[in-house]
């Protein structure tokens, strides 16, 4: 499909899913397009790049919104192939917005989930983190986070990374040792938190109204330290202020800073599979650091 035909298909999807006429359009990146509606709203439309990807994102956004905590863009409509949301005008990150975001993130996590690995209502077991498959297969009420995280997040992607030659066998052994010792490395037991799940800085929109919006979730029930570890992995403006706001609402358990690497293993292995061995070495380094503490 040519770029022009793809843009026309996106415009058709916007009109069909919103019931409004599109007055102008502008390409953003890849399969994402911005469209002005005849009622003055500006929409962002994106095409799912894998079966079930739109459903996973739309139900994830709805689940985050239902927590009445962190804001997300309004969803104007979606189907199997297309997601149409509001355009969020962005500004400059500032400390006050960061503190507020930290408080809201704590409230989101406190909204909870039925179990570790539980996906959003109406979502599918086969979900995504970015462009990578991610199974939301819930454990039982008695399943410990360490067992679920090792078995359903780290080890499946470690096997894929080894097969892709993105992680060396010696490094794989170190990561496997972390998984075996997770019950002692994971810190105090915590109930399942409602996670964004892919909370790197690119999915944090600093809106002009001073409120953060979160986009592109890989929402599921998990450990609340995982979202904070993702924010640290690729850097986020005013992260210390975010954490300060978070701890005003829900103080983190002692030793959480030493556990950051444990929570970064999964996203690092996902990146190793998608983008190559540099991330595999980072995953191994994070595992060694976790074992050394």
From TrEMBL:
Molecular function in Gene Ontology: kinase activity
Keywords associated with the record: Kinase, Transferase
Ranges annotated as spanning the membrane: none
Keyword Kinase recorded: yes
Organism domain of life: Bacteria
Keyword ATP-binding: no
PANTHER family tied to this protein: FRUCTOSAMINE 3 KINASE-RELATED PROTEIN (PTHR12149), PROTEIN-RIBULOSAMINE 3-KINASE (PTHR12149:SF8)
Record family assignment: Belongs to the fructosamine kinase family.
Protein name: Fructosamine kinase family protein
The organism of origin for this protein: Streptomyces flavalbus
């Amino acid at each position: 499909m040519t770029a022009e035909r793809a843009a026309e298909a996106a415009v058709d999807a916007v009109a069909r899913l919103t019931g409004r006429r599109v007055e102008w359009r502008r390409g953003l990146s890849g399969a994402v397009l911005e469209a002005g509606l005849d009622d003055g709203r500006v929409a962002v439309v994106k095409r799912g790049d894998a079966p079930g990807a739109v459903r996973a994102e739309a139900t994830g956004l709805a689940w985050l919104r239902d927590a009445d905590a962190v804001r997300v863009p309004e969803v104007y409509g979606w189907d199997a192939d297309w997601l149409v949301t509001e355009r969020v005008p962005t500004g400059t990150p500032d400390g006050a917005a960061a503190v507020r975001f930290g408080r809201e993130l704590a409230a989101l996590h406190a909204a909870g989930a039925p179990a570790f690995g539980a996906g959003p209502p109406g979502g599918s077991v086969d979900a995504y983190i970015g462009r990578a498959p991610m199974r939301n297969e819930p454990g039982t009420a008695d399943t410990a986070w360490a067992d679920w995280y090792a078995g359903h997040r780290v080890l499946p992607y470690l096997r894929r990374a080894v097969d892709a030659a993105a992680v060396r066998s010696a490094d794989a052994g170190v990561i496997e040792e972390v998984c075996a010792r997770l019950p002692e490395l994971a810190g105090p037991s915590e109930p399942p938190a409602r996670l964004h799940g892919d909370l790197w800085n690119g999915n944090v929109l600093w809106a002009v109204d001073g409120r953060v919006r979160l986009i592109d979730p890989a929402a599921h029930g998990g450990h609340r330290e995982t979202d904070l570890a993702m924010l640290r992995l690729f850097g986020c403006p005013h992260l210390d202020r975010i954490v300060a706001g978070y701890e005003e609402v829900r103080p983190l358990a002692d030793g959480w800073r030493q556990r950051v690497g444990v929570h970064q293993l999964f996203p690092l292995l996902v990146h190793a599979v998608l983008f190559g061995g540099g991330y595999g070495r980072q995953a191994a380094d994070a595992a060694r650091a976790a074992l050394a503490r």
